[in-house]
Amino acid sequence: MRVLIVSESFLPQVNGVANSVRHVADHLVRTGHDVRVVAPGPGPERHGDVPVVRVRSVGLPGYRSFPLGLPDAAVERAVADFRPDVVHLASPIVVGAAGLRSALRHGVPTVAVYQTDVAGFSRQYGVRVESLIERWVARIHRRADRTLVPSTTSLHQLEEMGAPDLHVWRRGVSLDLFGPDRRDDDLHASWAGPDDDVVVGYVGRLAPEKQVRRLVELADVPGTRLVVVGDGPEREWLERRLPGAVFTGQLGGVELARTFASLDVFVHPGTRETFCQTVQEAQASGAAVVAAAAGGPLDLVEHGRTGLLFDPADQLSLRRAVVAAVRDHDLRDRLAAYARTEVQSRTWASLVDELVDHYLAVLPSSGAQRAIA
After folding, report:
1. Residue range 179-227, pLDDT digits in tens
2. Burial 231-258 (b: 16+ CB within 10 A, else e)
3. Which of 61, 148, 207, 332 is paired with 123 by a 20 to 30 Å CA distance?
4. Which residues are bridge partners to 7 per DSSP?
């Protein structure tokens, strides 16, 4: 099958959309499919055996290191030249909208993957156009042949937007990379110090939409050391207010896996996650998880069994949940063990095989008769 993936983000960017597209492209190629990616630049024009068509971009206001794609004739040329069997729209908003238009024009069926709450994202950056963005996102997903959502919360959100043919398609986790065997006792000891503190960590972008400023609520939890992994526009603010924390910067690959496995407690304070891949990676790594009872984590964390959920509306709830995990070593071990068991079947290979079934489901009807705006 010839699959054109039109994505709002791709390598060298490090985020959920780029990482998911990388895993999808890699597995599709391994299983004999012909794949091409269209994504905002700058970046390499090949990823292994996959050609990457780069489109124009601008830096996102307040987050200049994140390239925001622009409508570009390169999208139309990619569809016309490659002649795909299906167009995969990864978190479509701008480049993806252009990909949808081109697919409709050429009679190619589309599968849209909803992955980013762009409206919520814009509000965190002070851009007061949330309702306009929601209408735009709804229009894209109503015109796609099929939409895949990562969580129950996202499913309800898209249902309210009137998007048809919705299916839950979650994310895989690289079990060959993330696991308790990556734990580095020396690294943990360097963080824990002579008092053998419990190591509490956050991994992800240090950006407003992740609500990382709530980490300050954990600054003085007795018997803990806070480790912050990642980079972004909120790093300077956090460093000023968390002088006792360890800031590692952005990590990847084995170094990231080693860091995950060397945490005792993983914390994710954000409430706008459509899935929350870092929760899944922490669970695979053997860390006890504390996450907001909102969005994607509701599907990934069974409170008291595979992690702890806190009430984001209660200003004391996050701290209470972390304190509970910190004080009870047996609880941490139980949460980690049950969570590790739960993630064992969530491989990228199985998830991409499921994705191919969705591609096949839309092939008989391309949606070519729909009006092109």
Report:
1. 999 999 999 999 999 999 999 999 999 999 999 999 999 999 999 999 9
2. bbbbbeebeeebeebeebebbeeeebbb
3. 148
4. 90
- 30 and 155 assigned to the same domain: yes
Q: Give domain status of residue 57, yes or no.
A: yes
For 145-182, the DSSP string reads: SEEEESSHHHHHHHHHHT--SEEE------TTT-SGGG
In angstroms, the Cα distances linking 176 to 27, 95, 192, 319 are 14, 32, 27, 33
* Tokens read off for 153: 């919360």
Can you give the pTM of this predicted structure?
0.90
> Both 301 and 187 in a single domain?
yes
Q: What are all long-range contacts of 158-161, with beta carbons under 8 Å and residues at least 24 apart?
A: 158/114, 161/134, 161/137
Hunting for tokens 């489109």 — which residue is that?
Answer: 55
Asked if 163 contacts 143 with a C-beta cutoff of 8 angstroms, the reply is: no
41 and 123 together in one domain: yes
**Nearest partner of 266 among 308, 223, 294, judged by Cα:** 308
Say if residues 276 and 325 touch (Cβ distance below 8 Å): no
Mark whether 227 and 298 lie in a shared domain. Answer: yes
How far apart, in whole angstroms, are the C-alpha atoms of residue 184 and residue 88?
39
Give me the pLDDT at residue 122, please.
52
Range(s) of the domain holding residue 112: 2-172+348-362
What is the C-alpha separation between 269 and 92, in angstroms, rounded?
25
SS3 84: coil
Instruction: Assess whether 29 and 96 both reside in one domain.
Output: yes
